[in-house]
Write a structure and sequence with these properties.
Helices cover 46% and strands 18% of the residues. The protein is of the alpha/beta class.
Length: 385
């Protein structure tokens, strides 16, 4: 019984966790994907137990593609995927993003009506979930939402990485009893074997670890530390805004750029280098207002207080759990005052660390994995009937 993963990028740590879980429980796993120039996840690429089908060559800048170019690439991806599916005959197709759901939907409609579809949504795309009032955007949003609602009729299970995705979006057209909340939580084996001590002594290091994007919010952080000699910034990762940030921080001794990293091998060591996690995004994006990013869970399990944006569900969770602080995503001065307070009064950080310590056992990936195992097993059983 084969499980196929269908993704329009190189599988990232979150999708790789899903594949590992499927591999351990059901053995036969393959993935169809296309490579992007800036998301090369080394651990996945070195795993020889997962059959890999890269059917689209590297894209230099996927964000620059027009809708027409994207449609052409999806059409090519679909033709090549069908050839692989007809040979491999998967029981389950685990698809991420709307374009991959489209491929899975067509295959189920044309070739195998019994195949089970799992649709995973890690972020709500602005085309589907934006709030622009411009006529062009409203029409586009209506069309894409209508397409998604149609495609979801063939979906057997929906996976969301934030429970607020269902509350705010899918509630209107997909049943809650077939929706699974899978937090993008870290693997226990990566972090628990290492005691990641707090390093704050004379300098406080604020860390941004992950895909480097949201230039304005990173610029606000960099500007906020100017004049505060006791605070440094550490940025690890790559992404569409990396080069712009690199240019912006030229000759700034208080800012360290680490660049890309091997997640499994280096992520714990990266958290050892910071005292506080910075996870402030632009709340003009509706997705940002309802998403729960992996940095939340990494911050908790490493006992690092986290700074997030006000006006988000993430801020509600952070404040409720007492694991961090919320600031205006556009206000440099508010962030500056917070950093000055953290330097002056370490008890603010210590309280958050203690709160993290008390709850962190609940925020490792294994706390969420059983429901996915049960989902795969249930769908395989339904397929065999």
């Amino acid at each position: 019984m084969k499980i196929a993963f269908l993704v329009s990028h190189t599988p990232n740590p979150r999708i790789y966790k899903r594949m590992n879980l499927a591999k351990e429980e059901f053995q036969e796993v393959f993935v169809i994907y296309w490579q992007r120039s800036f998301d090369y996840y080394k651990t996945f690429m070195n795993d020889n137990e997962i059959v890999k089908h890269q059917v689209i060559d590297s894209i230099e800048n996927p964000y620059s593609l027009s809708i027409y170019q994207r449609i052409k690439m999806v059409a090519s991806f679909t033709r090549k995927s069908f050839k692989i599916f007809r040979i491999e005959r998967p029981v389950i197709i685990h698809a991420e993003h709307l374009d991959m759901l489209f491929v899975a939907y067509l295959y189920k409609l044309i070739h195998d009506s019994n195949v089970k579809i799992v649709y995973e949504v890690a972020d709500l795309h602005q085309i589907l979930y934006g709030d622009s009032r411009r006529i062009k955007h409203r029409i586009t949003r209506f069309l894409f939402r209508s397409i998604e609602k149609l495609l979801c009729k063939k979906v057997d299970r929906l996976i969301v990485t934030s429970p607020f995705f269902w509350d705010d979006y899918f509630k209107g057209f997909f049943p809650k009893n077939n929706t699974i909340y899978m937090a993008n939580a870290p693997e226990r084996s990566i972090f628990e074997s290492k005691k990641i001590e707090s390093k704050f002594d004379k300098k406080l290091t604020i860390g941004f670890i992950g895909v480097v994007r949201y230039f304005d919010q990173l610029r606000i952080l960099i500007d906020a530390i100017k004049g505060i000699d006791a605070v440094d910034v550490f940025i690890a990762g790559d992404g569409k805004d990396y080069e712009a940030i690199k240019e912006y921080v030229q000759d700034m001794e208080q800012v360290v750029l680490y660049g890309s990293y091997d997640y499994d091998k280096e992520i714990a060591k990266l958290y050892e280098r910071i005292d506080v996690v910075y996870s402030v995004y632009d709340i003009k994006s509706k997705n940002v207002r309802v998403a729960l990013p992996n940095r939340l869970y990494e911050a908790i399990v490493t006992e690092r207080p986290i700074i997030v944006a006000k006006g988000t569900r993430l801020a509600d969770v952070v404040i409720e759990l007492g694991v961090g602080f919320a600031v205006d995503s556009q206000d440099k001065n508010e962030l500056k005052v917070l950093l000055e307070n953290l330097v002056a009064d370490e008890s603010l950080l210590q309280e958050c660390r203690e709160n993290c310590r008390h709850i962190k056992d609940e925020y490792f990936a294994d706390r969420f994995n059983d429901q996915l195992k049960e989902t795969y097993a249930s769908l395989i059983s339904e397929y065999q009937k």
